[in-house]
Model the fold of this input.
Amino acid sequence: MAKELSEGRIEAFEYLFNRYYTPLCAYARKYLKDRDAAEDAVCSLFLHLWESRATLVNVCSMESYLIVSIHNTCLNKIRETVSRNKRNEIFFKSIVPYQEQGASSEYIENKIEQDIISGIIKNVYSTLPDKCRKILILRRENGLSYKEIAEQLNISVGTVKTQLSRANNKIKKALKNYTFGFFI
Done:
């Protein structure tokens, strides 16, 4: 069956879907405790199966492959849920002090947005090469000019500009993925 599927035969895919969809949903439901989440997991599995069909040539048992795959998919979904719940818990704990002080919801939203942006920028800083990070810190946090940075690090002004440009592009890219005004 794996060989036929790897060759792109739709009949093989339909057979596997019709044969295993319901049992895989039941298996997933045991882990996820939710029928819709289980069905989503199984549909995602079959979508991935079709998209990666060319790599299935050496699969000996499609049944075993599908069971292991749905098991791993369920574990990943559980990890995602736990991670999301932890993030939500941290988020809600972070706003309690402001609520207790009687801060307006607008102030709390702005503060949270600032904290998120700061976190994104800190993550970018941590991924930068040492030299680039040092230049960015000297510019942004110490307020040094390009010339002062170049003199301090014994590099050219052009290198300073290039490194800052690269760092700023990484920050822009990271912030581009963040949707501002998510409370609106």
